[in-house]
């Protein structure tokens, strides 16, 4: 961000620092243990629960007009790391445990909080291949139902890629939230297709576009299929939809019990709704944790 921005709620944004004023705070409580803050801002509440950012709070209380400074710090973090040769999640290893990234072989440290548990690179994030994005709670929830040995699996003779999930019949499931270069989509799809000889499943977060730029034409239904209008369209998503080497599913609302499967037919974008339970059974079930096999409905509980 080259310049700055001030929202109507009193939030000023500039470069990597945010200054947060009392107009958007709920209440302050001071005591012997220090100052605690309860936020009422929907913006910061969203940042926290999505788990997309780390944060540092600096509180100054020398003046009546109390203000906070919030520094946003991005993390390319992960669910699985090696600890003494074992693949462990951060919560299994314990907060502060140092492990090794199975992909880059760099040291990572376990970060275990009430909301999020993950491994973060020590000394800052490395330069990963293009298209590998900042992990969020959304990523974590879609990885959680699968057994650890099938999550974040390093693939290729030269460790070229790290598959998010290996599902039923060795199917690769890529979980993507942010936009990526169309050439990266092609390369990654071809790589996994050649590796597994199966269609690559792309699960894409579409919440930012749903019912604004991306609309289902419900009045033009043809059986279970609907024409889709997406203007302006995201070309990297269309690349996934048009190839026969993939199946594309959009998670348009994480709290919904459905996904939108999307494809191109006669040069037109089409879609059909699929329940998340059916998606889980179709692609996750064989390699899922026992509690999800016993009760697939637990998949929906991840979003509650």
Key terms:
304 residues, alpha+beta, 3 domains, nine-stranded mixed beta sheet, five-stranded antiparallel beta sheet, 8 helices, globular, disordered N terminus
What's the short story on this structure?
The protein is of the alpha+beta class and 304 residues long. The chain is 20% helix and 38% strand. The chain folds into three domains: 4-74, no CATH class; 75-128, no CATH class; 132-301.
Written overview of the protein:
By secondary structure, the chain is α+β, with helices and mostly antiparallel strands. The protein folds into three domains: 4-74, no CATH class; 75-128, no CATH class; 132-301. It has eight helices and 21 strands. A nine-stranded mixed sheet has the order 13-14-15-16-19-20-21-18-17. The chain has a five-stranded antiparallel sheet with strand order 1-2-3-7-6, covered by helices on one side. Strands 10-11-12 form a three-stranded antiparallel sheet. It is globular and about 55 Å long.
């Amino acid at each position: 961000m080259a310049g700055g921005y001030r929202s109507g709620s009193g939030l000023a944004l500039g470069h990597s620092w945010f200054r947060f004023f009392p107009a958007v705070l709920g209440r302050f409580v001071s005591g012997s243990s220090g100052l605690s803050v309860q936020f009422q801002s929907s913006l910061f509440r969203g940042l926290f629960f999505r788990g997309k950012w780390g944060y540092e709070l600096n509180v100054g209380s020398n003046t009546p007009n109390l203000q906070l400074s919030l520094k946003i710090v991005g993390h390319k973090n992960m669910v699985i790391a090696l600890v003494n040769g074992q693949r462990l999640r951060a919560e299994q290893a314990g907060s502060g445990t140092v492990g090794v990234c199975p992909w880059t072989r760099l040291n990572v440290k376990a970060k275990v909080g009430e909301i999020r548990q993950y491994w973060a690179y020590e000394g800052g994030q490395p330069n990963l291949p293009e298209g590998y994005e900042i992990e969020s709670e959304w990523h974590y929830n879609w990885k959680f139902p699968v057994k650890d040995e099938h999550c974040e699996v390093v693939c290729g003779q030269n460790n070229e890629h790290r598959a998010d999930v290996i599902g039923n019949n060795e199917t690769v499931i890529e979980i993507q939230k942010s936009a990526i270069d169309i050439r990266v989509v092609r390369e990654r799809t071809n790589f996994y297709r050649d590796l597994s000889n199966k269609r690559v499943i792309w699960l894409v977060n579409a919440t930012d576009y749903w019912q604004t730029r991306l609309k289902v034409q419900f009045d033009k239904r043809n059986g279970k299929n609907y024409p889709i209008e997406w203007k302006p369209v995201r070309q990297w998503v269309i690349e996934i939809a048009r190839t026969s080497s993939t199946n594309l599913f959009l998670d348009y609302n994480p709290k919904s019990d459905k996904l939108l499967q999307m494809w191109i037919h006669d040069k037109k974008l089409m879609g059909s709704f699929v329940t998340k339970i059916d998606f889980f059974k179709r692609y996750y079930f064989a390699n899922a944790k026992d509690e999800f096999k016993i009760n697939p409905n637990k998949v929906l509980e991840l979003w509650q």
